[in-house]
Amino acid sequence: MGKRIGWIGLGRMGEAMAKRLIKAGNEVSVWNRTASKAAPLAEYGASIVGSKQDLASCDIVFTMVSTTDDLKQVLFGEGGLVAGTARPKVVVDSSSISQEGSAEIRTRLEAMGVGYLCSPVSGNAKVAKAGKLLQVASGPKALYTEVEPYLQAMARKVMWVGEGELARIWKIAHNTMFGVIIQNLCEITVLAEKAGIPRHIFLESINDSVLGSMYTRYKTPMLTNLTFDQVTFTPKLLLKDMDLGLGAARAHGVAMPAAAATRESVARLVGRGHEDIDFAVLLVETAKDAGLELTSENMKMSDGLEA
Question: Are residue 143 and residue 274 in the same domain, yes or no?
Fold first, then answer.
């Protein structure tokens, strides 16, 4: 596709997405705070750079970090991508950050003559590796059209939802729904198991009913076998997104009682020290509250990649 591509942020998602760009034939230069995480990409043809400003000569730089503050730091902080005299033409950010923080970043970048596109995703690292992400973008339509081929290299579908920070609202709503669904799924699964229905049978029946979804099917092996060490999303990150969701609800005058209750449940997970583990560990805590001690059912199941 011809443009010089830079990438900042190589967590589980960032690494998988950058690989898709490289495999599509793009020349990609990458930087990561922990340099050792960048090294494996060299085997795929990436150029590893020693500083963020080494990417300032790129046409497009993609960023995938954890928080609004992290994004501000990699862009504007000491040694940041746009802290010097050289700057990329476009920054495309796929992080899950606040609408307000994103708007501030847009104002600062555009004042420097740097285009800015928000492009969060739906999918986990396995989905990203398979190129099956849903990628949603907002910002100037002409800029989206320019960047769209690169988004398509990482996703099964890309969508433009409007100007400004609307993609941030989409992502906040999306991840808030993650929380509410897992909360309810854990509650009803514990109810069914305590009443006597084997966990895998109950979850299979839900998946085959009108209530089943890619999400419930994807989570079923983990909930059945209690394999929460196979992390897709941590309680801490989910709590951040639930807080973003409730903040957006307050700003727009929308009542979200189910999300508010779920937020407190997720906060309890974090308070109990569940960190480097999948947020579906909520099932275990819900069962404990019901006086039920769960054990793995050790079932062979699909990994739910289609989610």
Answer: no
Count Cα neighbours of 245 within 13 Å in the Cβ-side half-sphere. 26
**Structural Rg of the chain based on CA atoms:** 20
Q: How many CB atoms lie within 10 A of CB 125?
A: 17
Q: How far is residue 28's CA from residue 2's CA, in Å, rounded to a whole number?
A: 11
Residue 253 phi, psi dihedral angles, 5° rounding: 70, 40
Give 265's Cβ-side CA count (13 Å radius). 25
Spatial distance between the Cα atoms of 72 and 25, rounded to a whole number of angstroms = 30
Q: What is the pLDDT of residues 203-245, one digit of tens each?
A: 999 999 999 999 999 999 999 999 999 998 999 999 999 999 9
Give the pTM: 0.89
Residues 221 and 245 in one domain: yes
The sign of the torsion formed by the CA atoms of 258, 279, 175, 101 equals positive
C-alpha to C-alpha distance for 227 and 287, rounded to whole angstroms: 16
Whose tokens are 């999300």? That residue is 259
Is residue 41 situated within a structural domain?
yes
Q: Which residue has the tokens 């769960």?
A: 294
